[in-house]
Specification:
The protein is mostly beta strands and 408 residues long. The protein has two domains: 62 residues, Orthogonal Bundle (Helicase, Ruva Protein, domain 3); 321 residues, 5 Propeller (Tachylectin-2, Chain A). It contains four helices and 25 strands. The longest helix has 20 residues. The termini are far apart.
Length: 408
Amino acid sequence: MKSNTICTVFILLLFICLAACIPDPVREAAPEEDPIEISQEKIDHLGITNPDKLSAASKRALAWPDLGNEWFGEFQVFDLKGDLAYEEGVVRRDPSALIYEEGKYFVWYSKSTGPTQGFGGDIENEKVFPWDRCDIWYATSEDGWTWKEEGPAVTRGAKGEYDDRSVFTVEIMAHKGKYYLCYQTVKSPYNVRVKNQVGLAWADSPDGPWTKSKEPILSPADNGVWKGEEQNRFNVTKKGDFDSHKVHDPCIVPYKGKFYLYYKGEQMGEEITFGGRQIRHGVAIADNPLGPYVKSPYNPISNSGHEICVWPFKGGIGSLITTDGPEKNTIQWAPDGINFEIRSVIKGAPHAIGLNRALENSDTEPFRIFEWGLTHQYKNYNYQYIRRFSGKRRVHHVAKGASARTGG
């Protein structure tokens, strides 16, 4: 027994020695980390205690670009007067951008009435979302505070058409004396696997009348596969592209002689990730405002986001990313309208922002576009209403009673 024990120990020692002599392919293959060059100024700026002992957080901080705070600011939200003040029993939401024509501001928005029943009942006759059974209305204002509701601009299509259930989440583009509304569409029945599309209407005046496209100008990718027949949008055999389920929140921007249609994509089998919902943005490009729109091969162009909020700035396109994903609550900018990089992190940006397009002509102050515009707010799940926001670039933080010079 004793000799067996000695033999076993000897074999184990021999195995350990042999293992130590065998080269570790992982260890040998691992490249040496490049030394990080750190200036004393950067060490002081980041408050690093010991540059020879860098935590993962310090390494990330050292890799941050030096952007300053030009893109950083804060927001406030206020109630409106007139017809856009909150009205019990009425949904007004997702305001478009504002345009200024003939001495007044114009805005378009989704409008419906009555509470939401959801998907538990008779979806053919009930209302499954606040944005279900909507038409697109518009309102005008001389001062941006008191608004007059002018009436419907684009209404749902006849039974059997691609927009017969709801038209909603609208954006306006004014271009060379003509006006274009792009918006989401849903065809009945509105179930959880329904595929939203994008429609278009155009007119010679912001007051209409509007001519609607006979077919959608943008549809979801057709490369996902549902699993089973049950109405369950999370059950998939194949998820497909980032926009295989829905194309939402369209916004067309004239850019570099073409027309860039930015949109939110929802994927079949959408998951919850470490950043929240799996939502990303895409872009489709056309030579003509009426299309055809061709999706960019670089899609998706964001890792996060919800409602589209884009504007031209310094030859590129700015984008406010909110609500969903690991890069939510950021402002991003792309010099080519496609390759976006984070420029600032924003706290508490209003949802569904309608930018004031009259403020787009500043290429020196990135945050000026947020000077004021419109947003929507939930009074409760059933009813939302339109409000006004103001934004201001923030440069200092001071204690109460102190000035920016004295701090505190």
